[in-house]
Amino acid sequence: MFGDIKFVCVGGSPNRMRAFAQFMHRELGLAGDGEELADICAGTDRYAMYRVGPVLSISHGMGIPSISIMLHELIKLLHHARCRDVTIIRIGTSGGLGVEAGSVVITDTALDSSFKPRFEQAVLGEVVVRSTELDKDLAQELLACSKEIPDFPTLIGHTMCTYDFYEGQGRLDGALCSFSSEKKLEYLRRAYDAGVRNIEMESTAFAALCGLCGLRAAVVCVTLLDRLEGDQIRAPRALLGEFQRRPQRLIAAFIRKRLGVQPQTPLPTP
Amino acid sequence: MFGDIKFVCVGGSPNRMRAFAQFMHRELGLAGDGEELADICAGTDRYAMYRVGPVLSISHGMGIPSISIMLHELIKLLHHARCRDVTIIRIGTSGGLGVEAGSVVITDTALDSSFKPRFEQAVLGEVVVRSTELDKDLAQELLACSKEIPDFPTLIGHTMCTYDFYEGQGRLDGALCSFSSEKKLEYLRRAYDAGVRNIEMESTAFAALCGLCGLRAAVVCVTLLDRLEGDQIRAPRALLGEFQRRPQRLIAAFIRKRLGVQPQTPLPTP
């Protein structure tokens, strides 16, 4: 059933990964309108999975533990189905650092909250350190694709990955906050100086596990705000929706190009 | 809208927390059959939340980062609604250690993967260590409730909390495994000797955050298998469903007792 899968796209939200599958269905010019795509994981409410031609679209929930369980199960599935030359891409949202809201960041290396390019995995109570570098050629290929889409701010940079959204990312608006606005900005500026251009919650584990298992992997996240300017998203709802579709549009363009498929419909404009 | 909330029950799966809300609705003898309960978080697919009288039932997804985001937002909500004397209970599933499958473990202290009673939170890139003790009186009150339910194996013990399900819990059946069956069993036996009776993925962060914010908190998880005997769940599907309802039955009995409500229907038997 899965032997001819060539692309796996993963993202946090089940609704967004369903929307991506439907968008991919139209972009590949497949029969029907894609509204009837069935969730292959419908028996569980842990993840959602859709198949569109050679593309799987899967949700992974929020954070490293949640994506890690999904990746173990996905990699076993790809192995048993004898899939070859699979490219896996995480598409998501993130907080930006020193870049305009709506920018798409293609990650070259994922960093932990100390700005180190590593993922620490506890194995039988001992910490094992793993590399979090992503595929450089794939990142360049995605950047080249982005240049063909008009008005599509895209850059390659480091992505910081944290274990939570509030204290771990220096937010002042959680239930707890033990630091000042000055300390927060000092930390975020140090992150910027270390090359971090966006912050999310899955990239280190994703890069480490895909790398160890020999999958070519990329992380493509849009920034919803510039954290150097605040903690609250200020973009209007419609613009935010357009921002969230940007990683989907870039990946659709990339997959079409790889498969030699012409665009089926005009690209949506902002 | 939320000022009179006295109990918050949280668990990983949206479907299970919906089922718990419907069960609680019947147990409290409220009007209607509870089938029409609306998801208060229906605008997002991150979490599901249901309200039943003074009880909130909320899903938190899988793992520490996911539950941590939900708890920050919940605690802000309870604060703004001026709720007082709130008891919060995580109900879930877990792997057992040296206890019969189907046993319900009430956590006294959550331990990390080195068997230490601590939660390490990164704050602005520095690690802050937090206590993971839970409310001892509440644990005893829950244990007393369990004794009034026939055929209901329940114990108080330590719960180990890990950042992933496969390597972090010493499973041999993930996509990656770098250790032998002997090393795995040696690790799990050391955990047992340290007082661990079950393993899950949220309790340290839950205990730490609730403790710091002054919420009386408990963790009540059923064990689906004994990890000293294997990695695969062997209980038949129907029995597994009955196991998963055990924490719900115990918490319903506890809340009824606190509220002075008589059972509305006979308790389901296994």
TrEMBL record, chains A, B:
UniProt keyword list: Glycosyltransferase, Transferase
Residue ranges constituting the Nucleoside phosphorylase domain according to the UniProt record: 6-255
Top-level taxon: Eukaryota
SUPFAM superfamilies per UniProt: Purine and uridine phosphorylases
Residues reported to bind substrate: Q169, R171
Single Gene Ontology BP annotation: nucleotide catabolic process
Sites where the protein binds phosphate: R46, R90, I91, G92, T93
Root EC class: transferase
Pathway note: Pyrimidine metabolism; UMP biosynthesis via salvage pathway; uracil from uridine (phosphorylase route): step 1/1
The family this protein is said to belong to: Belongs to the PNP/UDP phosphorylase family.
Function: Catalyzes the reversible phosphorylytic cleavage of uridine to uracil and ribose-1-phosphate which can then be utilized as carbon and energy sources or in the rescue of pyrimidine bases for nucleotide synthesis. Shows broad substrate specificity and can also accept deoxyuridine and other analogous compounds.
Protein's recorded name: Uridine phosphorylase
Organism: Calidris pygmaea
